Every structure is written in C-alpha cells, then in structure tokens.
Here is the input.
Amino acid sequence: MNRVYNFSAGPSVLPLPVLEKAQKELVCYGDTGMSVMEMSHRSSAYQAIIDECEALLRELLNISDDYKVLFLQGGASSQFAMVPLNLFGKSNKADYIQTGLWAKKAAKEASRYGDVKIVASSDDKVFNYIPKVTKDMFTPDADYVHITHNNTIYGTRFAEIPDTGDVPLVADMSSSILSQEIDVNKFGIIYAGAQKNMGPAGLTVVIIRNDLIGKAMDICPTMFNYETHSENGSMFNTPPTYAIYICKLVCEWVKENGGIAAMEKVNKEKAALLYDYLDNSAMFSATVENKEDRSLMNIPFVTGNDELNAKFIKEATAAGFVNLKGHRTVGGMRASIYNAMPVEGVQALVDFMKKFEAEN
Ligand SMILES: *Cc1c(COP(=O)(O)O)cnc(C)c1O
Here is the structure.
C-alpha cells in the first residue's frame, strides 16, 4: 500500500527518511547486536543516543547553558500539573492566557495548587483569535505566566511572545516546537509532547531555566519534580528510550534540511498555499480570520454546511488525504501541516479542494 497524505493533529506524520532509517536500524543498532528498544538505558550505546538528541535540540533551538533539557513522560498534560507544582511558592499566583481547550485544561489543573487568574481569553469566539495582552495586565508578583504558543485545535498562534517582564513565561509548544525560530531566552519553561512535530507519543521534552529548578512545593511527587530529572540526566527511572531515539532521528532530519530557519520558510510557504486558496474560495473558508493570529501548523476550515463537510471528508479520505476531520468544538475540517508534511502534500490537497469545489 502507498503512504497517504496524513493531516492528523497528533500523533502525526513523521519524515519518511526517519522511518526508513529506524526500519534499517530496527533489529540491530550499530554494532550493538540489538534493537534500541532492547537496550539498557544505562548502556554507553544508549547514553550516546540521548546525549546526541539533547545536543541536536540545543543546536537547533540555540539553547544556552542557562537551560536544562529534560526527556520526560506523561505528555504535555502532565506538565499542566508539573509546572504549578514546581513554580508556585512565592506568591502562589499565576496568570494564564486562555486561547483554547489545552490552555483551559492547563489553567484548571494549576488552580488546584494556587491562585490562577485568566488575564485574557478568546473563549467568546470559539478561540478563533489571540487576545491582545499588554505587560500591565499581568500580576506583578505572579510566580509565572502561562501561554499555549500554538493552539492545535483552533489554529491560532502567538505571532508575538507576550512581554511578562521579570515574571517567568511558561509556554506549551506541543504543536509548534521546531516549526519556527524562537528565542528560548524569553521563556522560563518550554514544554512539548513529542507526538506532533518531533517524534512518537510517549516523550515530553521540557526546556527549563536553571533557576526555576529545585523550588518545588512540598507536596510535589518525586516524579513530578524537575529537580529529580535534572539531577539524574533524565534517568531517575527508565526514560522513553525508543521515542527519544526517534526524536534524535527527527532532529538529524531537521538539521540536514537546513535547520529551524529552513523549516519555518517551508512551513510559511505551505500555510500560504492553503490560506490563499481558502481566502479566495467561494466554498471553503478559514475559521481564523485575523491573519496575524493564524497558525502555521494547524489550519481549520469549513464550508458552512455540515453535509458538505462530511462529503468532502469522505471523498478526500478515499483520495488519500486522511485525518482531515476538525475537532468537535470547531466542526468542519482541519489540516495539520507539521514539518514532515511536504509542500507537495499541501499542493495536492489544494488541488483536490479546487476540484471538489468545481464539482459541488
Ligand atoms: C496535543 C496537545 C496537548 C496534549 O498533549 P498530550 O501529550 O496528549 O498530553 C497539550 N497541549 C497542546 C498544545 C497540544 O497540541
């Protein structure tokens, strides 16, 4: 069977060369005589893999020695608890910008441990825009401010990173990490589930400024304490070894293809292809109208007619464009076009949509 164009929001398409390399190395990795899956995480062969993965992430994202890179489990959803459990302590106050379902879940979880203030929200319009925030809106003595950098479900992103002054900014970058250039120094913590843009499910990457480690609340479980993982090189317990290995291969692929700047350029090209068509189509339209707020990674769109949406999804699936159904809270369609989706995939989708529009 041929590979399809997979527009899944996550887990999502991986670069074919990565899968092929993993396939080649699946049974015997290097001269170890075993699969990466079968290796002790304490072996020197495995240590080289995790070290290389970290080195590549540091190189690609330009991460300074002021930050630790941690390889954890539990998904981005565990970070919703881990962040407050580690950062609350001074004022026990945190500000959240509510730009979607994930942001809402993050705020709700944090409110179990301290005072959470929703400083801005786009809930009034099904999260189809990014609310304007200014520095004076933030609580001056907050322990941190939290944003969801790219809103996977609603297709918005922060084109500009809010200025929070001295208050550490925490960003959920699950669906945008490695997709565009980012100044890590603007953030206290960046976290991301790997399954959108950096590998398979099971791995969560945390980039955390050193001074935010070691101040966890007393009630913080050992496994949820950043210090535990920082002090043990992400090997306090068994890390998700195979997912880290695939993440390493993805990083190698990003580097071979020109690094993050090159990814961003292609991602902008892909997004422009689809948005331009949506803005000119008489049948389809993007749900996010404000151009500045539009995500480069997740593009929801609708026809305004549920039957037509269903017909489109059905015919697209049959033609090899899969996982285009939108999230239930938005309806319609959503095309997730992560790094591994080639320009040709988006072009082929646009061509298919044009044909569908002409026929219907
Ligand atoms: C997918 C996603 C999550 C949830 O990730 P899990 O790894 O499944 O916990 C959280 N935030 C964002 C922005 C996401 O896209």
